[in-house]
Design brief:
With 126 residues, this protein is mostly helical. It is 73% helix and 3% strand. The protein is built from four helices and two strands; from the N terminus they run αββααα. A two-stranded antiparallel ribbon has the order 1-2.
């Protein structure tokens, strides 16, 4: 996979994530019921921040450590939330079709980590 393809793939996924998490944060601030909270901190806000930091790092083409730290944190949150949803010990916000959004979040962050690893190991010019 070329560096250009991975660069723009990462960008598209980050933009999708920013819009998805952003909508939940807006809903959370409007109603107080947009997403689950841990210690009164809305997890969708944490996830939004975990999309913003990698987005900026990716655009600036530096701070890979921050990119991986924030995508790893959010991926871990999404994994735990997905497991809790699956076994019935938690409740993730759902899409219009009823699919828990934590499943999508886990896939997005896993993809971001994978693509960034591929991107950083690519040898061709951008």
């Amino acid at each position: 996979m070329s560096k250009k393809v991975t660069y723009y793939s990462i960008l598209v996924i980050l933009i999708i994530g920013l819009f998805g998490a952003g909508e939940l944060v807006v809903e959370e601030f409007k109603t107080g019921e947009g997403c689950p909270k841990i210690m009164q901190i809305p997890m969708c806000l944490v996830v939004l921040i975990c999309f913003i930091v990698p987005f900026v790092a990716h655009l600036l083409k530096k701070w890979n450590v921050l990119y991986f730290l924030f995508t790893g944190l959010a991926g871990s949150i999404a994994l735990v939330a997905s497991i809790m949803q699956f076994i019935g010990n938690g409740e993730c916000p759902k899409t219009g079709s009823g699919t828990p959004m934590c499943y999508y979040s886990f896939v997005l962050f896993s993809s971001l980590v994978f693509l960034k690893v591929v991107h950083t190991k690519s040898k061709d010019k951008q």
